[in-house]
Amino acid sequence: MRIAMIGTGYVGLVSGVCLSDFGHEVICVDKHEGKIAGLREGQVPIFEPGLDALLASNVAEGRLSFTTDLAEAVQGAEAVFIAVGTPSRRGDGHADLSYVYAAAREIALAASGPTVVVTKSTVPVGTNREVGRILRETRPDLAFAVASNPEFLREGAAIDDFMRPDRVVVGLGDSADGDGNADGNAARAREVMADIYRPLFLREFPIVWTDLESAEMIKYAANAFLAAKITFINEVAALCERAGADVKAVAKGIGLDGRIGSKFLHAGPGYGGSCFPKDTRAFAQTGRDHGVELRLTEAVIAVNEEVKARMIGKIADLCGGDLQGRTVAVLGVTFKPNTDDMREAPALAILPALQAQGARVRVVDPQGRREGEHLLPGVDWAEDPYAAAEGAHLVAILTEWNQFRALDLKRLASAMAEPRMADLRNIYDPQDVQAAGFLAYASVGRTGFGGAAEERTAAAE
Ligand code: NAD
């Protein structure tokens, strides 16, 4: 089947490459000329493990190509996917749908025959119906069908997630509701979607066939739930610190309950990234639009902000509450390992706050520098953790890259002016850190040693 993928970002590129690997003929489109020029040369614009090899093999086999010309890609395509960005709209947190609607208009103008338009971008309930309306209004002469096919891939594990998904969700309109799927187009949309994902159905990955609204809602409800789970354990972590419990043991103890599950129960510096922050905001806004206050989601958003602020206090506390003139070596600034994505990474809130309190910040990140350089003005970039720690007063682990999981702690401590560690991903055992010669250590939801907090406790006793 011939497929056009509009938007060649994290989702569009991975989806396009994987669909071509399923055997479809895929043309990926992006407005960004540099991105497309690079892709034509085999240069992958993002860091995603395994993507470059899969892309190269599908290009070599003639199934995958790249263009800036949307009309060229859309003409003759049976299915056109919309995978453009839906960032937060300034001010109200609503999803900015202008890229989605602009793409729908361009698709309508370019289409040459019956086309199934599939929304892969994360869009609030009601958006696909509006896409259908735009298509009909722009090209009343053509038979369009719309389908909602939200994407659940995780950056860093995106190919595996696309190829071996927990489920595929497809929302379709019914044939009588005037959503662009009238006159039998809904049935055709179902056939086209079934053909696209046939390799997955054959391997019995579950597919959820549903209506447009439910498909749209599934994506937001899933992300809001996951953000709530992370936030829950972060809140428990704060209590563990005060009450002398260990959040890692608590997470293990609750996660082994099959009804709860162990994933997304890792305490840390708060969720970030290109999805959870914007999607929780948009979900809360959708609730308000419909007169249903989503109080849990609203609380998750607020608590997550507090978590990031708490991390800043934790780092300052380790230095006796005074960061003026201190050097902080930060290990990891991307929002999670195995990605170069810096969107809404906790580092973007934490590092400027440290700088504002007078700290010099030195950063090392295996992939974050390209994006991070302009997002984090005034920081110095180091090549490796030991160089970053040279003469520093504190090392702060913000992202649990594998490279940071087995550091030579003695070497790290001896490189520092005053060895202290803020382990915001709970990678290390406090005893090991102390044995390596560190003066102070704090993590999230576990007892540390040294630092102002301990001094305050000692003074009170
Ligand atoms: P992105 O910003 O990385 O990529 C979007 C791309 O679309 C950009 O390259 C932009 O130039 C291009 N674009 C915009 N309008 C265009 C047009 N009219 N024609 C051609 N190209 C156009 O975004 P992303 O992270 O890939 O996210 C895309 C969507 O997928 C969002 O709705 C997001 O919420 C959702 N999503 C993202 C992830 C993720 O992990 N990043 C996971 C699941 C879902």
Automatic annotation (TrEMBL):
Enzymatic class: oxidoreductase
Signal peptide: none
Chain positions recorded as NAD(+) binding sites: 30, 35, 86, 122, 155, 278, 343
Pathway, per record: Nucleotide-sugar biosynthesis; UDP-alpha-D-glucuronate biosynthesis; UDP-alpha-D-glucuronate from UDP-alpha-D-glucose: step 1/1
Enzyme nomenclature, EC number: 1.1.1.22
Positions of the catalytic residues: 275 (nucleophile)
Keywords noted in UniProt: NAD, Oxidoreductase
Domain spans labelled UDP-glucose/GDP-mannose dehydrogenase C-terminal: 329-430
Protein name: UDP-glucose 6-dehydrogenase
Native source organism of the sequence: uncultured Rubellimicrobium sp
